[in-house]
Every structure is written in C-alpha cells, then in structure tokens.
Write a structure and sequence with these properties.
The protein is an alpha/beta fold. Helix content is 39%, strand content 16%. Helix 1 packs across helix 3 and helix 2 (31-38) crosses helix 3 (46-59).
Length: 348
C-alpha cells in the first residue's frame, strides 16, 4: 500500500545558498575585497584573506563556476563559458574505488575540490579497442557540453594517447603516461621519492641497494626512478648491483632469484609490493630487507615512500578548474607538468 504523508504547513522552502555579497557583509569588507581575498589576490593582506576565508567557510559559501566565468567574460569582453561539469575519462574496466590505490587516492583528492569549486564530475570510460578514434567519446562530450577532462589511464598502460581535437578541450592527466597531446600533467615526483629512499637507505647503513622495476612501469614513469637510482648509486653506493628490469610473468621469479644470487643486495627497492614474498626470508642465505617505493597507506609492513595520490588529485582538479575559468589565458599556455613529492614513512 502506498502511503502519502502531507505537510500541514506546506513545502519548506529550500535553504538559500550564501552569496559572495553575504560573505562580504559578514566579514565587514567590500564585495570586491571579498572576491579578491577568496582568490588570493596579492593586493589583499594575509590577515584579510584569512578572515574572509574563515567567514566564507563558516557560512558554507561555495563559488559558482558559471558566475566566475561570467565575471571573467565581463573583465575581458569575451564570450562566457557555461560548463560546470568535467569528465573523468578512465581507461580501465571500471572506475577505481576510492582508497588504497594510486588512482583511488586521486579520486579522493578530486572530489572535495570539485565540491568546493561547484563542479560535477562525470566518469566516462574510453575503450580504445572499440573507439580507436575517440569519436564516440567526442559525441558524448559534445552532447553533455563538457570541455574539461581529467585523464586516468588503465593500470597496465605504458604509453597511450587520446585522439581528440584538443583545441576544443582542456585536459589534465593524472600521471605521465599520455603522449603526443597538448594536455597538462600532474604526477608523483618519482625522482625525488627515489632520492629520499636512498638517503634513508644510506642512513640505515645498507651498502648494496638493488632496484627492481617492471619495464612497463619504468616507461610509464618516464624512467624517473631508474635515472635517480643510477645517478645516486654512482655517487654514494659503489657496491650497488645493476638494476633489474623484469616484466610480470612466469619467468619473473627465476630472473629475480638469479639476480639475487649473483649480486646479493642487502636491501631491495621496488614499487612492486609483490616483491617481498619472493625474497629469501630472514635467517636464510641471501636474505635482504625491502623498501617500498609505492605505498598508498600508512598501514604497511614495509618502510618506504607514501605516494600522495590525494595531493595529485587535488592539484589536478584545481588546475583544470582554473583553466576552465580563465579560458583565454589557459589557451595560450604550453603544457605544464606538476610533480607532487611523496613522503617517507616507517613500517607499522
């Protein structure tokens, strides 16, 4: 049985969202000062910026991207943009769950920035095998009026491209694997992370650090880990073995064990968290320690680098929204690459 419950007082009016004018009035500043303060304009003092930001946060103020586009259009005399939805284009079989993976952490960083800036995120899967020229994806983007794209490739992709007319779109990739298209990139700073790890290795007294990489991952990360390892070990670790680049597969265990027997590293560094299970256990001949170059949670048995995927996601979202809100300036920019450093953490 269906039940209808009436409200004797009639429908309640929707709560009115606070406006910039409300924030300015509550903060005791002019409308222009409030706008400049929330945009971090250098003409506004730090004290005023913090005060206005606190008032805005307390009031629950959220910027309106369409209003931002309108104000930009007024300032420049150009036509305004009206899109407030961006696409999250992913290449895997499903959208990664938020959590303990690189792209899962990226998602966790993207969503609050989108909420704060007033944007919706529309996940779109691009299957290169079924849509090689991206014509289907392009039709969907056009139908939905989407001009901004966050790009998330499949996990096992080394190099890829997305054949869109990029004069019509702004794109920000969440790693370094995309090639041949004029998009911006935000990624982990693999070189800096490697140097941090080797500094810790040296301080711990290890003398023969060995590096194990998947060739596909090495290519995907533009050889940043490998280059930093070779440069630092040449200077600080004269006894370091040559790095091992071995793909996943049936022969992997044999290659790894042969490398361990021949070169006898006292610690192995790798972004592959499956490596520890293949190393000789403590107390056995050839036993060695393990340092992870790609931890995504602090709850780990291995010391190593915690990759700030949330920071990558936040930065990528902020960059894309800024591009959309300042299209004339953004169109003149050369592709930028922003690298976000991870941090060392001990085993737990």
């Amino acid at each position: 049985m269906n039940t209808f419950i009436s409200d004797a007082h009639g429908p309640r009016p929707a709560a009115k969202s606070p406006t910039l004018r409300d924030v300015a009035k509550a903060a005791g500043v002019s409308l222009a000062s409030a706008s400049y303060a929330l945009r971090g304009h250098p003409t506004v003092s730090e004290a005023t910026r913090k005060h206005v930001a606190a008032v805005a946060a307390q009031a629950g103020y959220r910027p309106n991207p369409q209003l931002a586009a309108f104000m930009q259009a007024r300032r420049t005399g150009r036509s305004m943009r009206t899109d407030a939805t961006v696409a999250l284009v992913y290449g895997g079989p499903s959208l990664p769950a938020e959590g303990e993976s690189y792209f899962g952490l990226c998602l966790r960083g993207i969503r609050p920035v989108a909420t704060d800036r007033g944007y919706a995120i529309d996940p779109l899967r691009w299957d290169e095998a079924r849509d090689p020229d991206a014509s289907r994806l392009r039709r969907i983007l056009d139908q939905r009026g989407i001009r901004g794209l966050l790009l998330m490739p499949a996990d096992r992709t080394s190099r890829w491209t997305l054949p869109l007319d990029w004069s019509r779109f702004f794109g920000v990739a969440l790693d370094l694997s995309i090639r041949g298209v004029p998009v911006h990139r935000v990624a982990d700073h693999h070189s800096a992370d490697m140097l941090t790890a080797l500094t810790r290795v040296k301080a711990a007294g290890w003398r023969r650090p060995g590096l194990v990489l998947d060739p596909l991952n090495n290519e995907r990360t533009c050889e940043m880990r490998l280059g930093a390892y070779l440069a630092r070990t040449h200077r600080d670790f004269p006894e370091a073995p040559p790095p091992l680049l071995v793909p996943a597969g049936e022969d992997r265990v044999g290659w790894l064990r042969a490398w361990l027997r021949r070169h006898r590293p006292d610690v192995v560094l790798s972004p592959d968290r499956g490596i520890p299970s293949l190393l000789p256990p403590a107390g056995r001949a050839g036993a060695c320690a393990f340092v992870s170059l790609a931890n995504y949670t602090d709850r780990t048995p291995w010391p190593g680098i915690f990759i700030d995927g949330e920071g990558v996601g936040r930065t990528a979202a902020f960059l894309l929204f800024s591009l959309l809100e300042n299209p004339q300036t953004a169109a003149a920019l050369r592709p930028q690459t922003i690298l976000v450093e991870g941090r060392w953490h001990d085993a737990t």
